Automatic annotation (TrEMBL):
InterPro entries: CB, DNA_brk_join_enz, Integrase-like_cat_sf, Integrase_catalytic, Integrase_DNA-bd_sf, Integrase_DNA_bind_dom, Integrase_recombinase_N, Phage_int_M. It comes from Duganella callida. The lineage of its organism: Bacteria, Pseudomonadati, Pseudomonadota, Betaproteobacteria, Burkholderiales. One of its GO terms (biological process) is DNA recombination. Keywords: DNA integration, DNA recombination, DNA-binding. This is DUF4102 domain-containing protein. GO terms for molecular function: DNA binding. Pfam families: Arm-DNA-bind_3, Phage_int_M, Phage_integrase. Residues 202-387 form the Tyr recombinase domain. Residues 98-179 form the Core-binding (CB) domain. Coiled coil: none annotated.
Amino acid sequence: MSLTDTFVRFAKASKPSGDKHYDGGGLYIHVKPQGKYWRLDYRYLNKRKTMALGTYPEVALAKARKRRDDARVLLADGIDPAEARREEREAKLIAASHTFESVALKWLAMQAKMRSASTQDKVMAWLQHDVFPHIGKRPISAIKPRDVLAVAQKVEAREAYDSAHRIKQMCGQIFRYAVALDLVQRDVTADLRGALAVIPRSHHAALTEPKDVAALMRAIHGYEGYPVAKAALKLAPLLFVRPGELRAAEWAEIDLDGAEWRIPAVRMKMHVEHVVPLARQAVAILRKLYPVTGDGRYVFPSLRTPRECMSENTVNAALRGLGYSKEEMTGHGFRAMARTMLDEVLGERVDLIEHQLAHAVKDPNGRAYNRTKHLPARREMMQRWADYLDRLRDGHDLH
């Protein structure tokens, strides 16, 4: 006679060893003084075996019957259900131990022999800042396409479109590495084709690949034109201010000893005074220029008259003289170059970059940050940027 829910609920042990009450198909409940235990008796390879199916009431009668039926399906296929369950449990333990982060770090270590240290650092920064906080602790076998998409879309939301695409590609490489290790069946990022926004073309032409910027910095370093234009061209990538702000710079605004340039609000697009920390390289260029133009108002005076600043076309003309067309690089493009590479290559904080670009940056309450917000951190960022450009010019960090 089959068991009922009522019987199982009220059944009590009549002796210390307990009582067995059968339901059919080898399923029974062993009622002991300390609890009620579901068991399944079966034969496999002519041997009698018993398999635990859980305890009551955590496993109700209907669920115990379902587990019995599943086990008998396996037996019909010549599979020992107890062994199958053990293998399943081990597979889950293995999956839990192979998190996305652990697999990614193994993949990164494997890549170290084939990539430069700077590229490794850039990839690690992406992983630590954008990926691990969201999916790093999850078993890689449990991650779905939508999980990777959510990570990339968070990067998209800050308008770092190229980084979003690169992060998706990086995750794809990690998944393919996991496939080779037999940890996952496939690269789930293959399902994300077309899911991210197309990388927008910058309105102002700019170089953003390290090898291209390295060539540009060498060309600028070797420029032998008018000294004022030469100084402006060298400062443009270091300061990445708007071209109009650069050409109209006044000596009275610059504190060489304090390594700082304060552009008055009247000359700023946002009508707020802007502080530009000067890296050592920028200070050196300005000190060399001071004996040439320091007795006048403008840092970069016009060639025609010192009472006016240099022409808006001066930096662009110098770039054309170096062989760069307007479709390749512009004076305004130094801002896009810095914005992209500080974020995507050096992994600098986006809010610091936006502050330095004199973009509107809001605090968590929607208020505009003070112009001196994070100034010490911005000073350090500007020095790292200048040092990085020097390394590119010298042929390092090209990947």
